[in-house]
Amino acid sequence: MDTLSDILVTGIGATLVMDLWCLARGPLLGQAFPNYALVGRWVAHMRHGRFRHAAIARAEAVSGEAVMGWSVHYLTGIAFAALLLTLLGTDWLRHPTLLPALAFGIATTAAPFLLMQPGMGAGIAASRTPDPRAARLQSLVTHAVFGLGLYLAGWATHFPGLR
User: Does a structural domain hold residue 28?
Assistant: First the structure.
């Protein structure tokens, strides 16, 4: 197994599963798809020393923020896959199991709760949003789906011709 390609397939695959869930939850639950351009805007402002915003949507727009946001989104998924494989070992890919991947996916909710949401103006664990409990639940479910995606993508690394 080539570890780097396994990490890429697992991270990209898990992030894609999460994005497919976000597309499906629109018609199913009436929840909007995440605006990754705002993530790109947040990251772009960091190069000027601005890490926190009262409301990222009101911050000055940045050229290429959508591409940057989507790139950060997928690079984060890849980084999380690398961390999962560091914690579980690459042997996990030979026989992926759901529970560790699901638990890890849920644990990754710490990133938006403690970094992204506060930095973008939503407060710790979405405390400054109109309905913090709904936002928290949405984050938890989405990251659980990411964990499911880690499992499915890890399993897919064994399909001949997939890589």
Answer: yes
pTM of the model: 0.93
Which pLDDT value is given to residue 118?
98
Task: Say if CB 5 and CB 12 are below 8 A apart.
Answer: no
CA dist 82 to 42, 48, 64, 156, Å? Answer: 24, 29, 27, 16
In a domain, 151, yes or no: yes
The residue ranges of the chain whose pLDDT is under 70 are: 1, 159-163
What's the rounded Cα separation, in Å, for the pair 155 and 44?
35
Number of domains in the chain: 1
pLDDT recorded at residue 161 = 59
Nearest to 34 by CA among 46, 43, 26, 44: 26
Q: Is residue 38 part of a domain?
A: yes
The per-residue pLDDT for 157 is 84
If we measure between CA atoms, which residue out of 12, 18, 16 comes closest to residue 139? 18
